[in-house]
Amino acid sequence: MEFQWFGMNEKPTHDRMGRRYRDTPVSTGKRITPQDTDILWFQKLHEHGPLPSSFLLEYTARSRKSNKRATERLTDLFNEEDTRHGGRYLDRPPQQFRTIDSRYNQLVYDLAPAGEKALKQAGGLIGRGTRPSGPWVHRLMVSCVTSSIELATFAQSNISFIPQYKILNRAKVGLRYPITITERSSKTSVTKDLIPDAIFGLEYHTPKGSKFRFFCVECDRSTEPATTTNFNRKSWLRSLLQYREYIGNGHYRKHLKLTAPMLVLNVITDERRLEKMIAVTEKETGVSGNTYLLFQYLTDFGTVFRPPSPIQSLLLEPWQRALNDPFLIHEP
């Protein structure tokens, strides 16, 4: 085997076995032309945000005969730069390699600029803030939550997923909406923007016609306090009071021009944190509890991060509620 030597500022592209490193694109000179399934991947990355390879493979499971071939195609879309759109179509975000044993994890992909160009040319690029914001692991968590629910609907003949961009485009608004709440200590009013991590809808096909339900998504990685007396800092208590106005008092109907009910899916990375958030909710809502704030926890995005496979439980398993029976969102 012929070995390559690199200067101090050069990064090697292959390991001692001659294999390309997972975090460094290396083109072989192959010409890449986007296929229909590639455009679908680009579209889902644009709608949801960065996604692990297992999610992308699931989106095209019905149109590709081999997962091995599909995985090789993802590798080509990351490595090969000879394209008519000026470069590689996919990125592998570097943050995924800054964790324990990242080489044993599945790869996470995101759109590269050339992928955005290809998607726009195919007529699939959409606007109005479709992708989550914030730290990268948080964004990935939000993407995996919304994508998992969409993928789980594929096996449910009576449910269709409504992506965020369709809701925002229909209402001609963005996610941000100002909400006024009152500080408990000073009794002064504070106006802060409520910005859900994501929104989506579900259409339930019933014998009596379609029914709709819409959802805000809040992903909690225990980076914010559950309660605080300073409403300038985000906390679960502040979010709870904002959602009491936004959903409890119907502001979402004006904002998003919806008539169907809306719920909040709170996805937490720790069971004890979930219990604390429910306790705060019970304290604020009193004996009647709360019906529109729902809670589940996932361990994949906790202290030790590992990209998950699609999480069907987010659609199919019960969500906890404060002083109310658990709720199944897949039932109309």
Helical/strand content category: alpha+beta
Spatially, the strands of the biggest sheet line up as 4-7-8-9-10
> Based on DSSP secondary structure assignment, what is the total number of beta strands?
12
Provide the residue-averaged pLDDT: 90
The rough form would be described as globular
**Radius of gyration, CA atoms, in whole angstroms:** 22 Å
Largest sheet properties: 5 strands, mixed
Range of helix content: 25-40%
Q: Helical stretch count?
A: 10
The low-pLDDT segments are 1-8
- Strand percent estimate: 15-25%
The N- to C-terminal Cα distance equals 62 Å
Order of helices and strands: HEHHEEHHEHEEEEHHEHEHEE
Task: Please sum up the structure shown.
This protein has about 325 residues and is an alpha+beta fold. The protein has helices at about 35-50, 55-60, 65-80, 115-120, 135-155, 165-170, 235-250, 250-255, 270-285, 315, and strands at about 50, 90, 110, 160, 175-180, 190-195, 200-205, 210-220, 260-270, 295, 320, 325.
Could you characterize the architecture of this molecule?
The protein is of the alpha+beta class and 332 residues long. Helix content is 32%, strand content 19%. The longest helix is centred in the middle third of the chain and has 18 residues, at 136-153. Mean pLDDT is 90; it is low at 1-8.
Task: Map the helices and strands.
Layout lengths: L35 H13 L2 E2 H7 L7 H13 L10 E2 L16 E4 L1 H9 L14 H18 L5 E4 L1 H8 L5 E6 L6 E6 L3 E9 L2 E12 L15 H13 L2 H6 L5 E7 L2 H15 L7 E5 L15 H4 L2 E3 L2 E4 L5
Parallel strand pairs: 8-9, 9-10
Antiparallel strand pairs: 1-3, 2-3, 4-7, 5-6, 7-8, 11-12
